[in-house]
Specification:
The protein is mostly helical and 232 residues long. It has a domain of 137 residues. It is 70% helix and 8% strand. Helix 3 packs antiparallel against helix 4, helix 3 packs antiparallel against helix 6 and helix 5 runs antiparallel to helix 6. It is a multi-pass membrane protein. InterPro entries: CD20-like, Sarcospan. Pfam families: CD20.
Amino acid sequence: EKSTSSSKMQESAMKKKQKKMNGDPKASQEEESHTCCGCRFPLLFALLQLVLGISVTVLGFLMAGISSSLLVRDTPYWAGIIVCVVSLVGFVMLCISYQPDEKTCVQFTVKLMYFLLSALGLVACVLAVAFVAHHYLQMTKFTCNTILESCQCKLDTTDPLGRTFVYQDAADCGSLISMLNLYLLLQMVLNLTAALVCLLACFTMWKHRYQVFYVGTWFYPLAATEGQQQKV
């Protein structure tokens, strides 16, 4: 009995050494789930979301200050505010221990909030890109004139019943159109980047939580029982 127990101890020690040498896949997966590009998750995503959210918000308020006639959908500061809130929740997640399998209610609640808000930020940024791109395409076809400290633009000057777009508080149509075109392009780039960051954050959390399958643990007891029945 002593010889069998010592042989079992030696075999277990050899298996542990082999796992250390070859690398335990479960341990490596747990370590990778805690980090992203060398940073603890979601530090990198939260920093990017904060920078992009502040940029989109500031640029949106600058666009609103150019002309009082611009609609809320054309100045997507609301998308930037949502992304900033997402980043703040991500920083809160850094204060708790991040684990793929939640063990406390606080971990589950914060992770769920971050995931849902990231999805909301993704939708908001995509909508902002769509609205801004539509406005930019319209402005490339405008024919504008300055009338009574306002810039009046039309898509088709030959159509007397065509819609007229009026930009108030604009003394010079040329400078207004050039500034708006630049701001709209920046909004498209920033919102598209923020949408990609939110998408990657959602995908990373989903991958950590659900893309791990321990199939062998399910079939091992069945194989063991079958082997015992054959021996009997």
